[in-house]
Structures are given as structure tokens and as C-alpha cells.
Amino acid sequence: MPHPLFEKHKAVLDAAVEAIHARGFWTPFPETPSPKVYGETAHEDGKRAVEACFGADFVLDQPGQSGWVATERSPYGVELGVRYPVCSTDALIKAAQAAQPGWQKIGAEGRVGVCVEMLTRLNQRSFELAHAVMLTTGQGWMMAFQAGGPHAQDRGLEAVAYAWDEMSRVPAEAIWEKPQGKNPPLKMKKHFEIVGRGVALVVGCGTFPTWNTYPGLFAALATGNPVIVKPHSNAVLPAAITVRILREVLTEQGLDANLVSLAVVEKRTDTQALATHPAVKSIDFTGSNVFGQWLIDNARQAQVYAELAGVNNVVIESTDAYKAMLRNLAFTLSLYSGQMCTTTQAIIVPAGGIETDQGHKSFDEVATDLAAAIDKFLSDVNVAAAVLGAIQSDATLDRIDEAGQHGRVVLASKKIAHPDFPQAEVRTPVLLTCDAADEKSYMEERFGPIAFVVKAADADAALALSERIVSEHGALTVGLYSTRTEVIDAMTEATWRAGVALSINLTGGVFVNQSAAYSDYHGVGMNPAANASYADSAFVANRFRVVQRRYHVE
Amino acid sequence: MPHPLFEKHKAVLDAAVEAIHARGFWTPFPETPSPKVYGETAHEDGKRAVEACFGADFVLDQPGQSGWVATERSPYGVELGVRYPVCSTDALIKAAQAAQPGWQKIGAEGRVGVCVEMLTRLNQRSFELAHAVMLTTGQGWMMAFQAGGPHAQDRGLEAVAYAWDEMSRVPAEAIWEKPQGKNPPLKMKKHFEIVGRGVALVVGCGTFPTWNTYPGLFAALATGNPVIVKPHSNAVLPAAITVRILREVLTEQGLDANLVSLAVVEKRTDTQALATHPAVKSIDFTGSNVFGQWLIDNARQAQVYAELAGVNNVVIESTDAYKAMLRNLAFTLSLYSGQMCTTTQAIIVPAGGIETDQGHKSFDEVATDLAAAIDKFLSDVNVAAAVLGAIQSDATLDRIDEAGQHGRVVLASKKIAHPDFPQAEVRTPVLLTCDAADEKSYMEERFGPIAFVVKAADADAALALSERIVSEHGALTVGLYSTRTEVIDAMTEATWRAGVALSINLTGGVFVNQSAAYSDYHGVGMNPAANASYADSAFVANRFRVVQRRYHVE
């Protein structure tokens, strides 16, 4: 008899698997924060649920708890003061291991059924999650809702769909019957058990605490592994709410809630001890190159799926929609103050300028016009505050302050007073120009609203520079503007060599820094910015093994 | 238009994919060396083709050749003297990289079509390959034919089937159309290119130069990668014949033959330099723990798929077919003188003995009866020579000679004069008993015809010991003999925890050391003996990436 939650969610699962194969648009989680979809009181309920956490203990009932700790500071200046349980790493790991056999026992169908139930519950709580994401990360409200809610749930469901797609092709049992000429055949019965590889650790980042956490979390869960979520110290609340909802679902299903737990770790050495624990068999990490590389070098007992820093870039060779191109780039550079791992940092333009539908534009004109487009787009303070959000970390504020030394400033960053949050640190992008030879300036990630218009000798040099940046420093996204087929073909082949996703001539409502679940492979997993992709079969296939047994039958 | 070789082999590919999902018996490559199947002159032709290589240059027409080298010594005492090209590693890598784009260009269909064509050609040359395998490895003729020919081809086709199964679910292109309420939808066209991760290195072993090479070779090829085959210095010929056939097929297809090349490397430091070359992105290795671990520790730029040593074991708790059990074990221990990575080394028996259909048998009786069964099975010199083959390496001869110091000898190894090859080193198995506490004796791999009957306190202790051996030292196979359901269940759960394939109550024509392509997962990839399995989706999914591009369409 199939698991009841598998039956309940089978239609969604089938559609999700169809979506990852067809890669068109699809989602079961509406991205519009509409009362008609989420309920008349959903917005208020979500806000109140988050506010109820302020200054209080966030009870999770996890083993090995020794105390409480509050670690968050809101970029919007809101006093949070949520206190999270501090638990012994060993206790969490032991409890996770104890929970694994029961999770294995319900089989692939049971696991994916429970996972979709979890995602459905998360979806119902999207407003609560959105408020938590907004207040901890500094994202604007709409992005916090969409990227922190439905889009993150989409990436989780996508991982479940990949896991199911792989696991469903392993039969539970088989009869193997080998002819023996005139003698009776050899006949065996074989059983195939899908076994998770062991405790999974998912290390979240400070900017997208759900979107970058759900893929690894649900990929690991669906394939049979217990998961310990270690959130960024400044974005614990969205992870804590998520873990609580997942633990509730597990308890309702008669499963061990300790299959999923939250590790709020105060010291980096404690995170390191957790990551290198022999029981930890996989680590999903989003964050800095320094700690990511430390994990890859030191957590040798685990498969590490790492999304690190890169230098995303766009080549402008020519365009037949100059203004629309500038608007598109202005939005990309402004969205969440460039605090996305997919935001463009280097815009490479030939020294001789470009041909456009508005006539020839010199290199300097392109830079100046882009600056003007950003300025215009952010001229309305309400638009600016909504799009920019707040600066998440002091390190990013410092980078903005010292950006001027790395090139010629075409557009200076401005501090904007947020209409609703007077203490929020809101900053407009800084745009600089520099020469391709000034590699020190633009060829390392400067996370935040800092972008360079880089002068390349010519179009060929621009393409070659883009490819080299990706190969040597990594990138999650590259873009190209060109009206010439041969340039588009050359750039396409360069991205195959370098291993990066390419957006061509974006002039409308899609932006190079956005990627859509079920359709866009986020990251490729082939250049230094990431060794895995959201999502593909490689993202799930190595998280489980098949253990067989066989015996003779008549 | 589909690739002609895809069309030609589509039925076989479809059947192979069906087989890996159903996991019953299937093969397109007959294992019987019958003239009716392979042709009346096939045996003679194959033998002559191999003999024609003796004392001659084996021309491969590879780049960067600096000379010739002969490295093989036949365990049968036959003078081989085949001289292989010595080529510069850098030249082979550069040529491999140059060949990759053309291989990518024919797409997944083209690649799997060409791969099945290659396997079909290899199958037609099975007698030639069998003679080469027999003379270089010391395998008996029948095993050399079956394991070195059709069964190896099966494992190669299985890898192609897995690769095709994964790649065929990535669409070449898609239309993504996202509704925008009352506004026109956002509409994009997306292209998805499957790109191999880069040069693959396949390092062969001295005992199964085709069976252990074809899975990695064909998994890497099918997923879009050029392959350099680095055979064991004593088993070059089967790999060289394979590479020559593959290069012929590539040339016929107008593809770059340097997509597949042979690296005959004289010094270990040269192999190390090759393995750690930045361009090498995957390594398939079968062999010693020392070099395997060196690769895992040092070839950090590559995915390493390693099959290493282990301590395969069988627990005898009880049986209702005592004599058949002993016959089955006798065959397992004798086949190819135990020089299989799957051969049982430790047979764990309770100190109090076992219940059987022949009454109670004490620990000592089990050991003595097993010794007698081996002795009886090998009493006919023709059977013995055919089953045992010859000892492949001096190191194995040394291990046999000094085995007596590791326990009480129940059956001593005997040297047998081979009826056809007077210089062959043929040895019967040595069987020892020891106590479970004598871990130094039996708890490291003693490759070759050396087995221990290990005395455990009781059945529970026997199961626990088996699990600990697998978890700590690794194993590719474990077996159990028991008439009690609760013991079978307990052992089953132990194998889920330890991650090892289990054979239960084998008393007929299937042996614990045999695994069948498309049905048995060879190795699990979850214990120290191997980090990958032949084959599962994890074996192929990480060998390619999907690189996308997208643009607006009306």
C-alpha cells in the first residue's frame, strides 16, 4: 500500500518531474502575495507570528540543549532578540542517526510524500517566512516573499522531484532468471534497498536563508538522510521556522522529529568540528570562498556541494534596444543592492564603443548612460527602498565606502532614508569604469552594489576576457548583448568551455540574476563559483546508495 | 536527423535501459564461446591475432610518441614482448582536449550510438580479447573469455545505458512562458547543452583489465569526455586492443581518434603527474588502497571513482544444505585462485558450531569439511588448472608462501603442474583457522587464494564482526548461510548500515564473488572498499554538466 502522503501529493510530484524534463514554466506555489491565494489574513498573521518571536525563546525541543542564544541584528534596524536553543553537536548527530532507520523504512515513496507535505506547509506559511527573511537579510518585501517563500519552495520541490526521478527507477525487487541451455535456469530473487549515505549538514548564507538552503535540505531528506541545518548567525529565524514546521510534520507522521534539527553554533571552530565529524556524509554550503574551500579541503569524509563567490559578467558588443538594455541592467544592478550571488559585477565593453539602435555609443557614453539609467530608476524613494532593500552586513557597507579607489566613479553610491525603517542602511549602486588591464579592481568578487564597466580592446577581447574570468574566478551568470549571430555563437561556445549559464539580449522582464526553478540550472557546477547546480541529477544521485541482497528461488 | 549509429543501436539501448530498471537477466553479448555465435574460425583467429602481437610494435599512431616499451610478463610463462608506444602525457592530454568539442557536437544520441558500436566491435573481437586477458592476467580460459569479453562488454553497455538514461532526460531546448496576469506572458527560448567535464583517466588493474576498465571508460565517453586509458603494466595488451578498436571506430565516423588513447607509463611518478594534471577531471581506479588513497588525497582536481581492497566475508550460522554450501564455497575460493576483488577472505563461524541437515557440525568440522570440499573439487588436474588459472604476481606467490604464519593451516596450498603451460605458477588455496580476536591475521586484505575460517563467540558476534569488518576495512561482497528468518533479517539490516551487497544461502550455480551486469550493483560505494558502484546513476551523473543559454522570443 502506498504511503498516504505519496498518494496525496502524487499529482504534484508527477507534474514536477514532468517540469524538470520539459523545463518550461511551472509551479504549484503562487508567487503573488495575494489574499485570494494565501488567505485574507495571511499577511497580518505572518507578520504577527514573526513579531511574537521577538525577545522570546524559540522552542524546538531538540536534544542536548545547554542554553539559549540570540545572534541576529536586522539590517532594517528592527530589534529581534530571538533566542535559539544551543545544542550539543554530538547530541544532534546521535539523534539524527537514530532517526535515519525509521526514515529509510517508509521508503522512497513515503519520503517524497512527506517532503512534499513539508513544502506545502512551508508554502502556507510563506508570509511568516517572508517577514523573517526580510528582517534578517535586508531584502525588500516583495523579494523576501517571492525568493524567500514560493521560489525557495520551488527549488526544494525541484530537488525532491530529481530525487524521486532517480529513486523511482530502482525497483524494490526483481527476479533474475538466467537460461542454462538444456538445464533448468538459475533463478534468484533480489531486493534493492535505497539507503541514505548519512547525516547531511546544510550551511546557510546570510542573504538567502531559504532559497539557498532548501535545495540541499530537501535533496538530502528525500534521498534518505537526516539533516542538520546550520544557518548563518544573522539569518537564523527563517531556518528556525522552517525546521520547526518540518519537525511538526515528522511528529504528526509518527516519525522521529530529530531527523531535522537546527544547529545554532556560536564559534567557527564549532562549525568546523561539526563539518568534519565522521558521521557527516554531505555538506551543502553557500557562502565565502574562504570557508567553502576550507570545507572542501578539510571535510574530506563528506561530499561537499558548494556555491562560492564569482565574478559575474556581461559583454556588450552591440544592441538594437539600447534603452531597454540599460533599463534591464539598471534593475539587475539595483535589485537587493546587488547582494545576490548572481548579480553582474563586470560589464565588458569594447574600447571603440558599440553600435546601437540609437547610433554609435562610445565606451564612456555606455558607462554614463548606464549610470543615468540607474539614477533614473531609483529616483522615486519608494521604488528605490523596495528594490534595494537594506545592506545586510557591515563588510558590504565597507566595500561600498572604499569602492572609489578601484576605478573611475561614474555613479557614486547614495545613502537613502527608508520611508518605513529609519535605521535601515539603504545604499544605491556605485558604478565605476576601469581598463581590462586593471584586473585587481574587478577580477575578485566585491559583493554588494559595486559594478565595473570594463574597457576591452575589442569585441573578441571582451569575449575572451569573459571566458577567462569565468574559468579562473568563477561566475554563476554571464550575459551578452549582441545583434551579430557570429558573436552570439562565439560567446555560446565560450560558455560551454568555461561552464556558465548565458543570458542573451535581455531587455524585458527577465534579468540575468534571476533563475527559475524547474527550468534554469542555477550555477553549472563547472567553474570555480560552484561545484554543483540547482538542480540536476548529479545534485541528488550521490546522496544515496543501493544495497542489495539476493537468494535462490524455485 | 538522429545519428545513424543511434538509429542502428536504438533497440539495444532501449533494452539495456529497460534492463537496468527491471534488473532481471539480460544481455546482448552471448557468454558462450560458441562457434555458432562467434563464427567457426573465431577462436583460431583471436589466438592468431594475439600471437601476431608478440615481439612486435603495437602501433596506435598516437601523438607525442618518443619510443616503445615492453612491460608484460605472462603468468603462464608465455613470452609476450609486445612493445607499446610511449607518448608524452602532455601530448595525449592536449590531443584529448582537442578531440572533445567534436565529440560534444554529435550530441548525446551520437555519442551513445558510437559507444554501442564500439562495444559491438569489441564483442566481435571477444576471442582476441580473451586470449590477451588470459595470457596477461593468468585467468583460466573460460573466465578470460566470459569476464574479459562479454561480461566486460555488458558492464560497459550498462554504463552507456545509465549515461543515456540521465542525458536523455535533458531536453535540447525548451520554451519557457510565464503568465503575467493581464499583460502578455514573458516568453523565452532556452537551449541546454550537455558538456563533459574534461579529460577522463581510467587506471586499470592487473587482474581484470577489461571488466574493471570498461565501466569508467564508457561512462566517461558517453557523457562527453575524452579518455586516457592507463593500464596496469602487466596487463597492457587487452587495453591496447580495446583502445585500437575504439580509435578505429572513431576514425570511421570522421571523429578524432585521439578522443581515446593509451598511456603506457613506466614510472609511478609519471602516473602521478598524469593523475594530478589540472586538465584531468575524473579518474576511475581499480587497485591497491595505497595508490587509491594517494589519488583521492592528491588528485583533488578530479572526481575519483575508486575500487580498492576489502575483506569480503561470509557468516555461516546454519544451513539445510551442508554439502551444497561447502561445494559453493569451495568453488568461490578456488576460482582464479581467489584473485578477485569479490572473493571471500573470512568465513565467520560460531565457536559452538552450526546446525545443518547433516546434524550439528563443530567449528573444527566446518573448517575441515570445507578444506576437504576444496581438495575434492580440485582433485582433477584439468579442472584445477582451468578453474585456478595462474598466479598473477610475485607478491601473491609470496603471500601464499607466508600465509601459514597467520593461523592454523587446515589446508595447505599446493603447486600444480599446468597441463598446457609448464611454466605457469598454479596454486591451490590455503585455508586457515583463527580466532576472531586475531584481527591482525584476517582483517586486512590478503589478495590471492588465502582464506580464514574465523571463530566468533556466537551467531550475534559473527554478525557484528561481519558488520565491523565491512565498516572499518571495506568489502565488496558478504554472504550469509542461515535457516533462521531473524538471523537473515538481522544480517540484512547490518548490510544496510555497513553498505555492502549480501548473498544469502548460495548453494547452486551462483557464487558470492560473481556479479551480473544490469542486475547486481557491483560494490555499493558506501564502505571503504569502494566509493562508487558498477553501475548506478551516481556513477554517471557527475561526469557531465548542463550549460544553458536563454533569450526572449515572441
Structure in words:
Chain A has 554 residues and is α/β, with parallel strands linked by helices. The first copy, chain A, has two domains: 320 residues, Aldehyde Dehydrogenase, Chain A, domain 1 (3-Layer(aba) Sandwich), CATH 3.40.605; 192 residues, 3-Layer(aba) Sandwich (Aldehyde Dehydrogenase, Chain A, domain 2), CATH 3.40.309.10. In chain A, 42% of the residues lie in helices and 20% in strands. Chain A contains 20 helices and 21 strands. In chain A, helix 6 crosses helix 7. The longest helix of chain A has 19 residues. Chain A starts with a helix and ends with a strand.
Short description:
Two copies of one chain form a homodimer. With 554 residues, chain A is α/β, with parallel strands linked by helices.
Specify the CATH homologous superfamily of the largest domain in chain A. Answer: Aldehyde Dehydrogenase, Chain A, domain 1
Shape of chain A: globular
The CATH topology of the largest domain in chain A is given as Aldehyde Dehydrogenase, Chain A, domain 1
Q: Give the CATH class of the largest domain in chain A.
A: Alpha Beta
Number of domains of chain A: 2
Radius of gyration of chain A: 25 Å
Q: Biggest sheet of chain A, open or closed, and with what strands and sense? A: 7 strands, mixed
Q: Return residue spans of chain A where pLDDT drops below 50 for at least 5 consecutive residues.
A: none
Counting copies of identical and different chains, the oligomeric state is homodimer
Q: Please tell me the CATH architecture of the largest domain in chain A by its name.
A: 3-Layer(aba) Sandwich
Percent of residues in helices of chain A: 40-55%
* Strand portion of chain A: 15-25%
Number of DSSP E strands of chain A: 21
Structural class of chain A: alpha/beta
Distance between the termini of chain A: 26 Å
Q: Which protein chains are joined by the largest interface, and how many residues does each one contribute?
A: A-B, 64 and 64 residues
Query: What's the pLDDT, averaged over the residues of chain A?
Result: 97
- Strand order, sheet with most strands of chain A: 14-17-18-11-10-19-20
What's the helix count of chain A?
A: 20
